[in-house]
Predict the structure.
Amino acid sequence: MIMNIEFRKPTSKDGIDISTWKYQGIYSFYNNDKTEAKNQWALNIDKEDNTFVIYNKENELIGNCSFEYDDNKYMLGVQMKPQMTGKGMGTEIVKSILDFGRQRYNFQSIELLVAKFNKRAIRIYKKLGFYIIDEFIWNVNNEETEFIAMKKTY
């Protein structure tokens, strides 16, 4: 099944939508209203460089992604709409994101950070060729959270 998705520059309307996303259980860590800074990021996503929103063929916003270039490396950011998570589409969506990013930025490798508890995402990243390069504790939302840094090389 080939997913028919489209990458667009975010609008302020997208930001308002993204700012309301609520995740269940341990994934509430990712809620966009968890802190004022995170809420402001979501509300101002239309002002972010190298950030894209993802729409499905029904013209519904299903996620966002970013490709930040810093310290001579590309960093991938991915966020799926809560209703899209856990439905078996993650591998295909992340593969589409990587293909889009590689076409646009021509990177030879890309890294990402993922909370260690997020086993679903880690499984997807490993399936797509990412490997663990580091583990660390990061203070996010005033909580000490274990993170994993992963990398994929082409």
